[in-house]
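#help-structures

NK: newbie question. if I give both the sequence and a SMILES, will the prediction place the ligand too? trying with fe (ii) ion
OV: yes, paste both and it writes out the complex. here, I ran yours:
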Amino acid sequence: MHHSFDFGAILAASNRASWQIEDVLPDEATLDFGRNFLPEALARTAVAGGLSSDEQRLLNQIRGHEYLSMFGMVEEFILPFVLDHARPQLDGDDERVRALLQFAGEEAKHIHLFRLFHRRFTDGFSTSCDVIGPPEAIAAHVLAHDPLSVALLILHVEWMTQSHYLDSVRDDGGLDPLFKSLLRHHWMEEAQHAKLDTLMVEALAEGRDQAAIDIAVDGYLALGGFLDDGLKSQAALNLTALERASGRSLPAKERAALIASQHQALRWTYIGSGMTHPKFAATLAAIAPAAAQRVAAIAPAFC
Ligand SMILES: [Fe+2]
Ligand SMILES: [Fe+2]
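OV: that's the protein plus ligand as structure tokens.
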């Protein structure tokens, strides 16, 4: 086994890490629109060609708005998925039941917190920003897939939030402190989710032959393709939001180049950083060694 996760230890860690919404977002707190919201490693806005520094910061904040919306969206399908996974075994292991219900409760809290942050953003940002969706339709599409495919996608998302915080947010002193605190608190609870998801993936793979597991990995890759189409649309929506906020229309050639480079930045943020996470790769390799190599070969396109 490539890990030593167990429900009792995860439950204890979850109790220690737990926080309240008002700890993260006090009533009087406001976002500082003079600062960036996302680290450059994810936003890639400081290298966005043809933009002034003010426009780069605006685009960075629009990426922050997108981040709030994307997490609101993925947690919309994680919550029912975890509840469905817990439901058939409510009379089973007590620590398993409690850990999974706590996982679901934390995701409901995260949806709430991301929504409140979204409101704080729209209160302070001068113009509107559009996002792909609606979340209910995206959740319905995702949840129509094989549960093991969905569990792999969720595992990818949970480890992805770990790498976002540890690799690029934690040591970035230039970010808006409130947004940074959101990412830190999210990271604290997601650390337990990543472990629970590993156990969910293993439970769902148990008893399946290799062919059935490989089909589920294909489902995970199909969901990645679905997500990628959405990210391409989102990159274009972000550029429209930038033009609205800055009051300047971008020349067609510059706009097309920016959409392409920002699409790649979104790919890294939501696909590559999860797909290449060593813990995700290790779990995948443990249940589907050949498929894991296939995923590793595809991953550079999303980095
Ligand atoms: Fe979350
Ligand atoms: Fe989570």
